[in-house]
């Protein structure tokens, strides 16, 4: 029996039937039509639908495996990076073996692009792409779940209700992660927390590590033994510019002022589109060394991950300029930072001048917090060394 059939990515022999279903899915056809030719679709949908079906069949012609489908995704990633980033750089992959399976745990800034950039980095260094953890809150439409599972995504069932259902869902997820890494030798990507770090403070939720640890086989394995088996690699993804900085700042201001923020319908899906199509400037993906050592509990693992992800984070001019504007000190000079040019300053001023004034400080904090966190990490290490 397939214990993970409900949540796992699709296998190669499922690709053609799933694509056949998608090509006649009216909701998917309507979404694509709205993206490609929105005005015509609004007034003449009966005319647009056959054209969209023809377009998708042409795009997907010859796709009969997951690898084939990911080549289609790669083509769009190439175009996105060319059009909406200034540069894309990778560090740290040279210390990771090309034939091992890893559990990549990264900071979380963008719903779709974080794992996409990790995959893009791996692909261009001739590594296998990862299986991606994605919450079912983003898969309200069946066609969305199908598309994600064709792209090697597996489902995190956050919608489970009641203690028993939640426990069963988490245990199944943990067992699938173990099965993928240790049995199928296929790498996994998962975010360090549920939900994005909208304020720029990257912190691992111990609950994520506890969930992963639910697949520990007691009493044969100690907690540390199991964590070491998983080849956990901390990953830091840094964007020079966040296309959603103003939206995140608005949400943070509302939460601070009103105690809550009510998302609009399909807001997460709109955020995905804005993130993909917005300017991200320079993007850097930094891979760390696999975690090894003795770990008392999930909190200890989370602390080590936090230190690595914060220290690996590649700072951009936008981070330094925001820090200088907010805190007016020169401690940023203690860190590894890029040379700041007049063009950087001009772009910074222009970006924040366009933003509603009530959100500017909070938006600057999003960019400044990685600098503050690296300084804090540096101070804590200095204290430990002194002791």
What does the radius of gyration come to? Answer: 22 Å
From the helix content, strand content and strand pairing, which structural class follows? alpha/beta
How much helicity do the residues have?
A: 40-55%
Count of DSSP helices? 16
Q: Could you report the average pLDDT, rounded to the nearest whole number?
A: 94
CA(first)-CA(last) distance: 55 Å
Strand content: 5-15%
> Strand order, biggest sheet?
1-7-6-2-5-3-4
Which sequence of SSEs, written as H and E, runs from N to C? HHHHHEEHEHEHEHHEHHEHHHH
Shape: globular
Largest sheet: 7 strands, mixed
How many strand elements?
7
Unreliable segments of 5+ consecutive residues = none
Keywords for this entry:
7 strands, 16 helices, alpha/beta, seven-stranded mixed β-sheet
Layout of helices and strands:
Elements: H1 12-22, H2 26-36, H3 38-43, H4 45-59, H5 66-84, E1 87-91, E2 103-106, H6 113-123, E3 131-135, H7 142-150, E4 153-156, H8 163-183, E5 188-191, H9 206-213, H10 223-229, E6 232-239, H11 245-258, H12 267-277, E7 282-287, H13 298-312, H14 317-327, H15 342-353, H16 357-386
Parallel strand pairs: 1-7, 2-5, 2-6, 3-4, 3-5
Antiparallel strand pairs: 6-7
Helix pairs in contact: 2-4, 9-13, 11-16, 14-16
